[in-house]
Write a structure and sequence with these properties.
The protein is mainly β and 123 residues long. Helix content is 0%, strand content 52%. The strands form two sheets. Strands 2, 4, 5, 6, 9, 10 and 11 form a seven-stranded mixed beta sheet that branches. Strands 1-3-8-7 form a four-stranded antiparallel beta sheet, with no helix packed on it.
C-alpha cells in the first residue's frame, strides 16, 4: 500500500485547510485509515481515524468539533477537513492505514504511512 498525502499549507488562525490521502496498491475497504501529526520537538500524536467500511470515526479531543474526517471508497481516498485552525495545530500531518476493525490511537499498529504534509497556522 502506498499513501500520498497532500493539501497542507500556510493559513491564518481561524482559517481552513483540507488534507487528502490517496491510497494505491490495494482496496482499503477493510482498513482503518488515520491522521497523525508531529510538531517540532514533540511526539507524533493521533488526530482522527475512520473505518473505510462503514465510516465510523474517532477524534482526538483537541480537534473534536473543528476537524472532520471522511472517505471516498471509490477513490480509495481519505480527507481531513480542518476548520477554525489554531497555531497549535501547526505540524507535519501524516496519513496511515492498517488492516482491521478496531480503534487504535497509537501509531505503532499502523503498517503503512504517507510522506507527510506541512500545516502551518500563523497567529
Amino acid at each position: 500500500v502506498q499513501l500520498q498525502a497532500s493539501g497542507g499549507g500556510l493559513v491564518q488562525a481561524g482559517g481552513s485547510l483540507r488534507l487528502s490521502c490517496a491510497a494505491s496498491g490495494r482496496s482499503l475497504t477493510n482498513y482503518v485509515m488515520g491522521w497523525f501529526r508531529q510538531a517540532p520537538g514533540k511526539e507524533r500524536e493521533f488526530v482522527a481515524a475512520i473505518f473505510m467500511s462503514g465510516g465510523s470515526t474517532s477524534y482526538a479531543d483537541s480537534v473534536k468539533g473543528r476537524f472532520t474526517i471522511s472517505r471516498d471508497n471509490a477513490k480509495n481516498t481519505m480527507y481531513l477537513q480542518m476548520n477554525s485552525l489554531k497555531p497549535e495545530d501547526t505540524a507535519v500531518y501524516y496519513c496511515a492505514t492498517r488492516y482491521g476493525s478496531t480503534w487504535s490511537r497509537g501509531a505503532g499498529p499502523y503498517d503503512y504511512w504517507g510522506q507527510g504534509t506541512q500545516v502551518t497556522v500563523s497567529s
